[in-house]
Amino acid sequence: MNKPIIALDFSSLKESKDFLKQFKDESLYVKIGMELFYQTGPEIITWINSQGHDIFLDLKLHDIPNTVYRSMRGIARLGVSMTNVHAAGGLTMMEAALKGLREGTPVGLAVPKLIAVTQLTSTTEDIMRQEQLVEASLIESVRHYAKLTEKAGLNGVVCSAMEAATIKENSQGKFICVTPGIRPNNSKFYDQKRVVTPQRARELGSDFIVVGRPITQTTNPVTAYLTIKDQWNGVTH
Description:
The protein is an alpha/beta fold. It has a single domain, classed as TIM Barrel (Alpha-Beta Barrel). 42% of the residues lie in helices and 16% in strands. The chain has helices at 13-20, 34-40, 43-50, 65-75, 91-104, 125-131, 138-151, 164-169, 198-204, 213-216, 221-233; strands spanning 5-7, 29-33, 54-61, 82-86, 113-117, 156-158, 176-179, 208-211. The protein has an eight-stranded parallel beta barrel, surrounded by four helices. Helix 4 runs parallel beside helix 5 (91-104) and helix 9 (198-204) runs parallel beside helix 11 (221-233). The longest helix is centred in the middle third of the chain and has 14 residues, at 91-104. The radius of gyration is 17 Å and the shape is globular. The mean pLDDT is 93. GO terms for molecular function: orotidine-5'-phosphate decarboxylase activity. Belongs to the OMP decarboxylase family. Type 1 subfamily. The active site is at residues 58, 60, 63. It is an enzyme of class 4 (lyase).
């Protein structure tokens, strides 16, 4: 079965360990974002690797090409399954990121998947127009960034599930869509704007879904996770 990626929205190694220890016999795919990584550094990755879980390191690199290249060489040695950059950094930056990731991966290990953020799921078209001064529509912007990402040779993009179908239609081969902004029915949206359910994400063509607070902030995270996992895989009881 496909595994939802659990966003570990915690600020310490202890919180993360306490949370993950609830999943005694479950092999997970987890996301380590900026909040957690900046507090713990690589130690959190080493520990999670020791537990046999896959890791999406979500640092959204966006800098000059040489800095991103050198950073990716370091990330490649950490043993994560997937990491990312901002597509807004441009073609040359994304190519440099991929080069660094490939060069830094130890012999015998698989090169991590590299994906690019198109527009954050907290971004609306009004925000794009008024704050970014982007004249294109939101979907045009996302589609453009996806094409640029594919041209750079990356594995796929981070986008809303709402945009997955059009991205798939305009890309070649196995170009993946990793979609945050997933909320089961009756869940709070929080700061997410472009939101869909796990079932709808599957129907729209998402390859990976990222779910945080609907799992991490419930009284029974294991039950919440298993329910979302079933919904994501179309399992009915």
